[in-house]
Amino acid sequence: MTRLAKSWSLCALIALAGCSVATTGPARLSDRQAQELARALDGKVPGKAVSCVSRILGTDGLQAVTDDLLLYRVNRDLVYRNDLRGSCTGISRGSTLVLRPTNDQYCRNDIVYGVDLTTGMRGASCALGDFVPYRAAGR
Length: 139
Fold this sequence. Notes:
With 139 residues, this protein is α+β, with helices and mostly antiparallel strands. The protein has helices at residues 3-17, 31-41, and strands at 44-46, 52-54, 62-66, 69-75, 78-83, 96-99, 105-107, 111-115, 122-127, 131-136. The chain has one domain (28-136). The strands form three sheets. It has a five-stranded antiparallel β-sheet with strand order 1-10-5-4-3.
């Protein structure tokens, strides 16, 4: 195998290593993650899942709770939960979340990945799932 072919083979292996693998179920939450999720959803009741939400509404953008769970805060009375389709290893450990929506909405199957800003390394990518609205009780 030529040196160039070996280099391409190594690049292909590295690229494959970054691919996400679908999990069989939700990851176990750490105590900190469970507290963050409980705080965000406290006093709210889940509604019917939707496939897209407006990007203009959210105050903080998408925030990773775990490597397979995002929250989208619209305001204190409305938070959307998004269980990713697959796991984006590393996004809950401080990576900057990168998303390339196709329009002014976040939608199911949009691709998201994390980037470590100190190293510039891109992490695994995965797809958004449905958005489940959690609204304050009585609203």
